[in-house]
Amino acid sequence: MSAAQLHDASADPRAAIRARVAAAGTSFYWAMRLLPEARREAMFAIYAFCRDVDDIADSDDDPTAKRAGLARWRVEIDAIYAGRPQHPLARVLAEVAARYQLRREDFLAVIDGMEMDAAADIRAPSLAELDLYCDRVASAVGRLSVRIFGTDAVAADRVAGSLGRALQLTNILRDLAEDAERGRLYLPREYLNAAGIAETDPKHALRHTRLPEVCERVADLAEQHFRAAQAAMRECPRRAMRPAAVMGAVYHAILTRLRRRGWRDPAQAVKLPTALKLWLALRHGLL
Length: 287
What we know:
Helices cover 73% and strands 0% of the residues. By secondary structure, the protein is mainly alpha-helical. The protein has two domains: 1-120, Orthogonal Bundle (Farnesyl Diphosphate Synthase), CATH 1.10.600.10; 121-287, Farnesyl Diphosphate Synthase. The longest helix has 23 residues, at 127-149. It is globular and about 55 Å long.
């Protein structure tokens, strides 16, 4: 089911959401399958929202059109909390937000992150800018998610903060070549400068002989966040953290395979076999 079909008020928005998540083939799907039906459907709605705003930011439209598309979602988020959502997906999100006490600022933070991508191609951000970006596009999603998982403990927000950053940094390392094709380079400026890489043109930077040094430092940073997330999970209800534990395990396995592959050819795809994803889901989802 395409994103456009989510705008069709005559369609069943929940069916469209389920179809979109299933078609995406995302690792997210494996973790969310562990949830009871109502929570799983709520998480699918969160995923559909994130995909919708991400598609706007990644489209070929000019920045003005992208900002307009994201602004329309800001209006919808306001409408959700005012009790007047119009978009079919927003109507589902309104029910989810009310049921699980989701915070308006977390939805808006996701949009803020997409606006960072929409405004201009990100190239060699500072560490502070990169951290803010990761918080908005990943950790904010985590803060929405942990409430749907079943906990609003302070430690759960720490899980969201650390795990979101770990997952996003892993995505950055996995998608170096794909992002370069879009004119983006998310590797931090300080790490590039330390390696003597002054070039911020993405394709040129990825060909630099010292690129592996930069990627290993980013991988080390991701590992720190994985460890911090695991520590925070131990302070949370175990059952509520099962989906987060599965996501962490899957993405840590991706990071491990990326490091094993090396960084000389970032275009070489790294994927987890379905059997491994299933094993990780069983191992971490049933403990």
